[in-house]
Amino acid sequence: MVKSKLVAFTVFFGEESYLLDREVQRGKGWPGRMVTYFDGSSTSESEIISALESQSFDGSEIAVIVDNAQKIKVGKEFEAYVAERKPKDVSSVLVAIYRKATITGVWAEAGRKGRLIEHKKYKPWETENIQKRLNKEAGRFGLTLSLDAFKVLQKIYGDNLQGAANEIQKMSFLVSKGGDITKDHVLSVCPRQITVMPWDVADAVSNKSLKQAMTFTSLLFRYMGDSASVPIVTSLMRQTERLLIGRSMLDQGKTKAEIGGALNMKPYTVEKQLLPTLRKHSREDLQTQMKKLCELEAQVKGSAHSKRTLVELAVHQFAA
């Protein structure tokens, strides 16, 4: 990073964990600076200010990385520090990771005073935005991503950016710099034997096809092992969110065109595919399902035991 482009505060926010995690790692490895890392779940505003105002033993400049900034209880002390700090004073810099879709308060003010950068989590149907993001990932390795290659990655990983980005990194060893990643390249590194995808589980669950949902879940765990837990739960959450939007609009008397516009679907597809599915669910049931899935997501991403069992029980419950 060029020093002239530095500012005192850089705040990243959003829900795309893969990109936010990458910002944390970049910050931790900042060359030429003494780096102090804090997790917002176990630190205070005073500790952050103290680290920013400290001096390194060898005279090097300071970088303070604050992850989970949204968990810090900030007050007047930090507000005053942000207000008084000059953006061009980069003898010490603060990089904050705010893991929420929206940002308010002093962290937003710090970002506006320096740099405020969003890492948005795109919905699976926001295909154009996901394609741009994956093309950007390919560009990191001096490559471009063909449309056919993107379609394969999208089918396999949906909105799972980390999974798709990992495959692109593998392909960077196969494709010469300046080259084009093709469908064949993707198929050469992605597991061909997987005949079903996490989205197939979500579709079967939403259609109340219990036997099919359990079969698809079993196949995914057979081929992917315990790593299947997260993409299955993520797919279920995204599908439930989509159905909840559609069901709510249907209850409000919205037209097929209006529902299709909100979900980026053609009215014909809404009528023939979405409405029959929506009629199998009530808004209350979908809200309850989403709450349980949020709890399940925390478990499968954490240190819970028997993650596969937890996922299989959830699939069975929601599809029954």
What would your notes on this structure say?
- The chain is an alpha/beta fold.
- The protein has three domains: 7-119, Rossmann fold (3-Layer(aba) Sandwich); 127-189, Helicase, Ruva Protein, domain 3 (Orthogonal Bundle), CATH 1.10.8; 198-319, Zinc Finger, Delta Prime, domain 3, CATH 1.20.272.
- 56% of the residues lie in helices and 11% in strands.
- It contains 15 helices and seven strands.
- The strands form two sheets. The protein has a five-stranded parallel beta sheet with strand order 2-3-4-1-5, sandwiched between helices.
- α10 runs antiparallel to α15 (307-319) and α14 (283-301) runs antiparallel to α15 (307-319).
- The longest helix is centred in the last third of the chain and has 23 residues, at 229-251.
CATH topology assignment of the largest domain: Zinc Finger, Delta Prime, domain 3
CA distance, first residue to last residue? 53 Å
The CATH architecture classification of the largest domain is: Up-down Bundle
- What's the total number of strands? 7
> What is the H-and-E element order?
EHEHEHEHEHEHHEHHHHHHHH
Query: Which structural class best describes the helix and strand composition?
Result: alpha/beta
Instruction: Based on Cα principal axes, name the global outline.
Output: globular
Strand percentage, roughly? Answer: 5-15%
Rg from alpha-carbon coordinates? 23 Å
Considering DSSP H and I runs of 4 or more, what fraction of the residues is helical? 55-70%
CATH class of the largest domain: Mainly Alpha
